[in-house]
Amino acid sequence: MKETFGIIGAGNIGQTVARHLVKAGHPVILANRSGGDSLKEIVHSLGAGATAGTISQAAGAEIVLLSLPWSEVSSLTDVADWKGRVVIDATNHFITYAPEFKVQDLGGKASSEVVASLLPGARIVKAFNTIFYRILAEDPMVAGGNRVLFVSGDDMPAKKEVMSIIASLGFAPIDLGNLSEGSKLQQAKGALATLNLVKF
Ligand SMILES: NC(=O)c1ccc[n+]([C@@H]2O[C@H](COP(=O)([O-])OP(=O)(O)OC[C@H]3O[C@@H](n4cnc5c(N)ncnc54)[C@H](OP(=O)(O)O)[C@@H]3O)[C@@H](O)[C@H]2O)c1
Question: Candidates 3.40.50.720, 3.40.50.300, 1.10.10.10, 1.10.340.30; correct CATH number of 5-199?
Answer without folding.
Answer: 3.40.50.720
